[in-house]
Design brief:
The protein has helices spanning 15-30, 63-74, 101-107, 115-130, 139-149, 171-183, 200-203, 205-213, 230-239, 254-260, 275-282, 312-324, 327-338, 343-358; strands at 2-6, 33-38, 48-52, 81-84, 93-95, 133-136, 156-158, 192-196, 220-224, 245-249, 263-266, 287-290, 304-307. With 362 residues, the chain is an alpha/beta fold. It has 2 domains: 2-162 and 342-358, Rossmann fold, CATH 3.40.50.2000; 171-338, Rossmann fold, CATH 3.40.50.2000. Strand 11 (263-266), helix 11 and strand 12 (287-290) form a beta-alpha-beta unit. Helix 1 (15-30) packs across helix 14 (343-358), helix 8 crosses helix 12 (312-324) and helix 11 (275-282) crosses helix 13.
């Protein structure tokens, strides 16, 4: 099948980009002729043909519209299926990897004020109204799309993300743990929490810092991701834990920092899925997340905890419980939870959608 995927630039520093690259490779393994239309440089993925999308300059508030218009002009018509991972129009399948912008605004208790928010919500409304098939990345997202935009349930399928089970593996812990902990100044056997992800507000870094303040004095928090740390550094200073937080920035070797930690914390206020969930579990690492994360659907008590957003006390209690458990049993349970989520399974899920969107294909 000849498939065009429309997606943001693939840089491999973020979970979204790693997930997209894995899906493309999964489709290639399935035997598809895969093409990527993206504003970024060619990511040089085996078997994927890259088409660079040129975007004219535009003010930030209008960039979503410029992207949608540029894609409509550039995509052409010689495809069996067009699948977009961005808010564009004219595709057969839209992967709602960012959930709903309206949902995010509601989670922040804000109305859609400002030109940018108004543009995105208006465009999003058209995407959900006009795209034949929509892929949510969790049951939580499917329900949200149906509720906020009155989309018929039959048009929305759940296709979970995949994860690189070789790259994210418990064996990395044995190889990298000691050197990574030394690089992050984690003393001895002190418990270490890893917060992985950009978009600090959405992913709940404030709650992670508050939770750290409730843990023993030797506990450390490793923050991996890009963002403005000023507000959060000030919070850590007020809480008396600034010296216990390591600001590591965006890292291409994120698997190394999972290995350095004992528990991953993602106390998000809004997260359609978050590949951090699967990457941590595949690495044998338990994760504490919230009921507002689609990734909570793969977390069980034996490999993590699900709490309410903003509940730092519950995050700290979950970390205490998980750190006190048997490490071999915990590692095995985490790995088992991740293993069904392969890129091959993800590609198969999309192929089932393609048949629904365009009829039967060979």
């Amino acid at each position: 099948m000849r498939i065009l995927i429309i997606a943001r630039p693939i840089t491999f520093h973020g979970g979204v980009e790693r997930a997209t690259a894995g899906l493309l490779e999964g489709l290639v393994e399935h035997g598809d002729d895969v093409h990527l239309l993206s504003p970024g440089a060619d990511p040089r993925l085996r078997g994927v043909t890259h088409h660079r999308l040129t975007l004219p300059p535009a003010p930030p508030a209008l960039r979503p519209l410029v992207l949608a218009a540029a894609v409509r002009v550039a995509r052409g018509r010689s495809w069996d299926v067009v699948q977009s991972h961005e808010r564009t129009l004219g595709q057969d399948v839209y992967r709602a990897g960012e959930g709903c912008h309206r949902g995010w605004l509601a989670a922040r208790a804000r109305r859609g004020r400002g030109v940018y928010n108004a543009v995105v919500v208006a465009l999003e409304r058209q995407v959900f109204a006009r795209t034949p098939r929509i892929a949510a990345i969790a049951k939580l997202g499917k329900a949200e799309i149906e509720r906020l935009y009155a989309v018929a349930p039959a048009r929305v399928d759940v296709v979970y993300n995949g994860v690189d089970l070789a790259r994210f593996h418990p064996s990395v812990r044995a190889r990298e743990r000691r050197s990574a902990r030394a690089a992050a100044a984690v003393p001895g056997d002190a418990p270490a929490l890893a917060f992985v992800g950009s978009g600090f507000e959405r992913k709940g870094l404030a709650t992670a810092i508050d939770a750290l303040a409730r843990l023993p004095d030797d506990a450390r928090l490793l923050v991996v991701g890009k963002g403005d740390i000023g507000l959060y550094h000030a919070q850590a200073e007020r809480a008396g834990v600034a010296k216990r937080v390591a600001w590591l920035g965006a890292r291409p070797d994120v698997e190394r920092w999972y290995a350095a930690a004992d528990v991953v914390v993602l106390p998000t206020i809004y997260e359609p899925f978050g590949n951090v969930h699967l990457e941590a579990l595949a690495s044998g690492m338990p994760i504490v997340t919230t009921s507002r994360a689609g990734g909570a659907e793969v977390v069980r008590d034996e490999c993590g905890a699900v709490v309410e957003p903003g509940d730092a006390a519950a995050v700290a209690a979950a970390v205490d419980r998980l750190c006190a458990g048997s490490r071999p049993s915990l590692e095995a349970a985490c790995r088992m939870a991740a293993e069904p989520f392969t890129f091959a399974a993800q590609a198969a899920g999309f192929h089932a959608m393609y048949r629904g969107a365009r009829g039967d294909f060979p």
